[in-house]
Amino acid sequence: MTTLNDAVQMEVFSHRLLAITEEMGAQLVRSSFSPNIKERRDCSVALFDAKARLIAQAAHIPIHLGSLLGGVEALLRYYPLADMQPGDAFVCNDAYLAGGTHLPDIAIITPIFVADEVRFFAANLGHHADVGGPTPGSISHAAGSIFAEGIRIPPTQVARAGVVDDGVTRLIAQNSREPEERDLDLRVQIATNERGAECMQALVQRLGSDVTGAAVNDLITYTAARLKSRVSRLPDGQYQHTTWMDHDGMGGDPLPIVASVNVNGDALTLDFTGTGPQSRGSYNVMPSGVAATVAYAIKALLDPSLPPNSGLFDAFRIDIPQGTILNPHFPAAVGARTTTCQKLAGAIFGAFRNFLPLDRAMADSHDVLAAMVFSGKRPQPTTDTAGSTYVYLETIGGGNGALADRDGMDAAHVHITNSLNMPIEAVELEYPLRVEEYALMPDSGGAGTFRGGLGIAREVRILDDHTTFSARADSYVTQAEGASGGGPGSHCRVILNRGQADERIMEPRQSALKVHAGDTVRLETPGGAGYGAPADRKVELTQADRDDGKVTIRP
Q1: How far are the Cα atoms of 163, 179, 303, 403 from residue 410, in angstroms, in the given order?
Q2: Cβ neighbours of residue 82 under 8 Å, at least 6 residues apart?
Q3: For 542, which of 28, 124, 402, 493 is 20 to 30 Å away at the CA?
Q4: Alpha carbon 437 to chain centroid distance?
Q5: What is the average per-residue pLDDT within 303-320?
């Protein structure tokens, strides 16, 4: 095999690369120490070539591609390939210096040598639950700049010839509220890349260096050509869709996220002109995050089985006006960028709704990443952790939009996030917290011929004083919009001490709110929107929803 000259060979080679990334991902999850990685799997792995082209990404979290790709590109600006040697590894996280999307996502990048030459890179990323700053979890909607979001790491060498630089790992770890977990997880990340390098070198040895290099080029070319072919089947035209954020994180009017999609033959352009100004808080998105979100949306909508590599980016063009929430000026804060990316993905999906056939149409989903963060002193500390702080991060799914032929999915993450929930048993074992309720939210899906998916309620009781609670989400004011006459989804809410005399319903943007033993905090996530006129819904579907307790409202 000197070139990949048919689709079968392309798929075989692509899956060989994906198998390496999946093995890396399994090792990263299995070996990590922090619950956020080992339980919630808030991590990603990928392979790149020496030109910083993505050649494979495991099926983990789409938004992480922005940080991984940006990190490899930044590394090559800082360190010449000729100065690298086997056993080296590099660490980075910064949004402005290292192409990252927010600071808790710390990437480790390792050169892979073939015949004394860097030919590839193994890269992985873990969302570390805390990287410093004034707010536990290192993300606050009210952060005024990136300097309030934790330690900034430009591309920095963390291992030399197989020896980890303990000074670098200590520097990062001691800027966190959980230094032991940071240090251990960084070492697991370094080891994960070593395994990826071994697997990639074995593949090259089996196929030959020249054949592998040619196959990578062919795979990227094939991916771009295949996506352009999908685009060419769409009707020419330009369509626009707008989603709305409640505000920019610091109050004020709703903020628009505008996506204009232009199709002209096999040329595809996405223009975000009209999107609101950059956030005064932390809801800004770097261009690397925008590119990752666009790549996800196009792959999901046009060709879900498309190989995940840089050929995706060769098949479209994006225009992002500077000074907007999608392309902020330094030193804008970026910690809560995920909800903005979710709204951005929803805007792209809405614009494409005009191009796609009816059987692939979809109403708006909940389009937020609702997060709750608790922090306090660790219970029953061991000698090593006496007096230490814990940071518990949870992201909660919601309702997805209805399709033209079926109800929306209940209780799921949407778009560019794909982490698991933290099992209740793990929460109660690790932290002084008790999960009182974890359930679907009745009546939260938008009405329609097909109903929107239901949101989730998660209610937590605090068992220890001196605990803080933070939250970030959106859609307290705005809602998912229905399609073809369907109704909107529900709102997002945070409720303190539900059902008690001091009950308080709050906006889902809270930063280090002090709570006490006995208090409860309830987060209710939005539902998806409905599709089609509610009057056209089949009676048996409505009755089934009532029997299941998903709908309680009667005409």
Answers
A1: 47, 37, 24, 13
A2: none
A3: 493
A4: 25
A5: 95
45 vs 56: CA distance, rounded Å: 9
Q: Is 110 left (phi over 0), alpha (psi -120 to 50) or beta?
A: beta
- The H-or-E segment that residue 264 falls in is strand 255-264
How confident is residue 381, by pLDDT bands cut at 50, 70 and 90?
A: low
What is the 3 state secondary structure string of 404-437? CCCCCCCCECCCCCCCCCCCHHHHHHHCCEEEEE
Confidence of residue 359 (pLDDT cuts 50, 70, 90): confident
pLDDT at 279: 97
Mark out the alpha helices in 333-387 (DSSP H runs): 337-352
Q: How confident is the model at residue 2 (pLDDT cuts 50, 70, 90)?
A: very low
Give tens-digit pLDDT for 255-276: 999 999 999 999 999 999 999 9
As to burial, measured by CB atoms within 10 angstroms (0-12 exposed, 13-18 middle, 19+ buried), residue 57 is: buried
Q: First CA to last CA across the chain, in angstroms? A: 66
Length of the chain measured in residues: 555
Residue found under tokens 């390792």? 110
Instruction: Give Cβ neighbours of residue 62 (< 8 Å, ≥ 6 apart).
Output: 292, 293, 295, 296, 415, 416, 417, 418
pLDDT confidence of residue 1: 43
pLDDT at residue 383 tops 90: no
Starting at the edge strand found earlier in the chain, the sheet holding 54-57 runs 54-57, 43-49, 117-127, 105-114, 89-92, 156-160, 163-164
Q: Which residues contact 553 (CB under 8 A, 6 or more apart)?
A: 443
- The DSSP annotation for 70-136 comes to HHHHHHHHHS-GGG--TT-EEEE--TTTS--S-TTEEEEEEEEEETTEEEEEEEEEEE-S---SSST
